[in-house]
Structures
1.
Amino acid sequence: DSGVTQTPKHLITATGQRVTLRCSPRSGDLSVYWYQQSLDQGLQFLIQYYNGEERAKGNILERFSAQQFPDLHSELNLSSLELGDSALYFCASSVMSGQENTEAFFGQGTRLTVV
Amino acid sequence: GQNIDQPTEMTATEGAIVQINCTYQTSGFNGLFWYQQHAGEAPTFLSYNVLDGLEEKGRFSSFLSRSKGYSYLLLKELQMKDSASYLCALTGGGADGLTFGKGTHLIIQP
């Protein structure tokens, strides 16, 4: 158990809908990262938050957004869903902002299926 | 940007040794990670290299050469449970997230 909690574990929804994925980082970790992993792609970095502030953006679509709350949990919002958004979405957390030698701990992921 | 290349798939025999290579092109990075990922599960940390050279951790070792843009993960005394994907990732270089390669799917045969 990495200490990172993601809910829900599975989500099935229809095209055009909106969903929210939730992540609770390890106790004491200030950074939260979101990744998307589809069958034909590796882990794609979406976005990072550090202590409530957006820190870095990767390949995140405009239909997707995220935030980190004062208690450091984070939510990833996916809207106007398309079939191609079906993937495993991972959250990871680390102590520091990412520039230092800090291991990122991954949650078990949310498997999103868009039908 | 950062570009990472790994072999797609490798096969090895239980009890043997296997080396998984990772080459990269980047304008700069802080360090290189190796993660293990079983199908449908979360990646788990294996090793981290920031300086050139070999880092040993039990049956797993990782090597980095910055001048050659090259790293490898060495797995010894292979066990069936080592069948998994092995992901090479860079940290730093403008993006604070980890940039992952597509991973090497390692199949262990009896």
Note: Chain A has a mean pLDDT of 91.
2.
Amino acid sequence: GAGVSQSPSNKVTEKGKDVELRCDPISGHTALYWYRQSLGQGLEFLIYFQGNSAPDKSGLPSDRFSAERTGGSVSTLTIQRTQQEDSAVYLCASSFYGGNTDTQYFGPGTRLTVL
Amino acid sequence: QKEVEQDPGPLSVPEGAIVSLNCTYSNSAFQYFMWYRQYSRKGPELLMYTYSSGNKEDGRFTAQVDKSSKYISLFIRDSQPSDSATYLCAMGGDTDKLIFGTGTRLQVFP
């Protein structure tokens, strides 16, 4: 596909369960970002990958959140022991080389609801 | 205080109106300023990018940056119903991280 894809598009889970969210960036893009978007909160930066390494994990809200990227491509965001406050839209973006002068292309997001 | 402040709206205007969207910020290190448009149930898409101060025009859209006042604006001329979306400002400085505003929801009615 031409754009960033994310799966699933919607996820409903029960409090305490683990969830995995997947991001497929644009082919050839070395930089990958995860954001969280909550009502009235804007986009909250979670983590940034350059290749397979994550130089900036500063936005991960707690140790229940982790992310990995393999083969410089697909990334997975894992939330363990989900809480109701984790309910949000999780957005992934990729850019060709990273940095503030490089355009970030966003996927459609995964809407997570924790009951 | 948030690093970037943006009025969430909603802002409702008639078709053909000039729309003004604004953000203020507190971090003087910001040098890169962007506006993203986000349609409902979609990811944001880059609309305008400006480096440092000044104006940039692209069709019906004009972005302005006033670094002395720490204030940025996006103007939409001859607004159309298809412009109805949420508009997010974003800013970056000397790190790879962008800081986003909360977004302003715009509705243009026929």
Note: Chain A has a mean pLDDT of 92.
